[in-house]
């Protein structure tokens, strides 16, 4: 196994986490992360980072989806409880989901089973914020701030001997001729690299503000959220299906500010750090699959890990572990493809 060469395409939260997991499985392998964008140029840096899978998050089966999420929660929670947890940007947070009309909005079949606490909000709690809140839940979960977690992960990867290269890949199959396995964590880039028509951008815009007095998260109707992270609070948001627009839109900024301030008036006057836009790499079923194919007269081996939509931070560790198992299967040559 000593001379195994693996390329990981993508340096967002999926690529970084997968590369570090691969080092645990293949201690002597040469592993390289190749990406055209790193750190704050990735979608991953836009995310609030809260562990909250939506009802539209699907793996190939309900059992596998649940395992990805459970493994992810345990991974982050174990890290959080070490002295490194805070350097990696992992914290525990609690807060509220409110809805004025939709009881479904405050339920979550995954979180109800995985989080240490998930309960209905009391009548008193429904009156905590202005608004006519009829339904509510209070829960405790985790938050992973990518601007800490990705540099922490990549530092560990490099300290273990991993390499980084900046390059735009035109063909995964061409690349696979130079490696034993290529692991594709290219997010929305997979739409083009794999000609995958199921990949759709879901545009999101947020405002990062300084408001250290906010320690609790709040979700309201219509994509309204206020999420305190390690050193900033994320205000959101919007979900624009099939939009490729990466520009900050003033109309969206005003709407986000207005809806968050009406939910939590103490936000008025909070200092704005940044406006950010990201394209969630959405696929109806997240793709974590192996592929063996013939290219240029040779057999090439790939494992895909992309399409996490609005839940890539949430599911990064679980899908990365699953992806590493597929790489192991390929490497041992017992693939059942
Ligand atoms: C507003 C907003 C809020 C969000 N909030 C949350 C949240 O609270 N919780 C949560 O779990 N998720 C959240 N998300 C979703 C999360 O950000 C994504 O699911 C996650 O970032 C996807 O990670 P990724 O590594 O797949 O993609 P990216 O971060 O986009 O990384 C893709 C990588 O692939 C590389 N790449 C692509 N194509 C090529 C190519 N041809 N050659 C070389 N490199 C290539 C890129 O350069 C990049 O390095 C949010 C997203 C948005 C937009």
UniProtKB/TrEMBL annotation:
This is FAD dependent oxidoreductase domain-containing protein. D-dopa binds at residues 225, 280, 310. FAD binds at residues 43-44, 309-314. Belongs to the DAMOX/DASOX family. Transmembrane segments: none annotated. GO terms for molecular function: oxidoreductase activity. Keywords: FAD, Flavoprotein, Oxidoreductase. Pfam families: DAO. PANTHER family: D-AMINO ACID OXIDASE, RE49860P. Its cofactor is FAD. Residues 5-322 form the FAD dependent oxidoreductase domain.
């Amino acid at each position: 196994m000593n001379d195994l060469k693996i390329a990981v395409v993508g340096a967002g939260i999926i690529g970084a986490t997968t590369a570090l997991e691969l080092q645990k499985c293949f201690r002597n392998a040469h592993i390289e992360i190749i990406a055209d964008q790193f750190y704050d140029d990735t979608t991953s840096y836009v995310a609030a980072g809260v562990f909250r899978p939506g009802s539209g998050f699907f793996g190939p089966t309900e059992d596998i989806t649940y395992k990805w999420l459970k493994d992810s929660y345990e991974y982050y929670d174990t890290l959080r409880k070490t002295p490194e947890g805070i350097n990696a940007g992992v914290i525990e947070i609690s807060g509220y989901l409110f809805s004025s009309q939709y009881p479904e909005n405050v339920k979550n079949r995954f979180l109800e089973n995985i989080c240490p606490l998930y309960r209905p909000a009391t009548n008193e709690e429904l009156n905590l914020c202005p608004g006519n809140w009829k339904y509510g839940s209070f829960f405790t979960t985790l938050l992973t701030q990518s601007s800490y977690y990705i540099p922490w992960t990549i530092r560990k990867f490099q300290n273990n001997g991993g390499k980084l290269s900046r390059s735009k890949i035109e063909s995964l199959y061409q690349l696979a001729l130079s490696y034993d396995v290529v692991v594709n964590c290219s997010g929305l880039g997979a739409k083009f690299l794999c000609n995958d028509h199921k990949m759709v951008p879901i545009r999101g815009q947020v405002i990062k503000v300084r408001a250290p007095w906010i320690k609790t998260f709040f979700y309201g109707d219509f994509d309204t959220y206020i999420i305190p992270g390690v050193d900033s609070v994320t205000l959101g948001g919007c979900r624009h299906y099939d939009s490729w627009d990466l520009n900050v839109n003033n109309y969206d900024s005003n709407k986000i500010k207005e809806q968050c301030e009406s939910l939590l008036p103490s936000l008025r006057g909070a200092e704005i750090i940044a406006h950010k836009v990201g394209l969630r790499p959405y696929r109806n079923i997240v793709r974590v699959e192996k592929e063996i194919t013939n290219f240029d007269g040779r057999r090439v081996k790939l494992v895909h890990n992309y399409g996490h939509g609005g839940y890539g931070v949430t599911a990064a560790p679980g899908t990365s572990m699953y992806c590493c198992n597929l790489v192991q299967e390929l490497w041992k040559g017992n693939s059942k493809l």
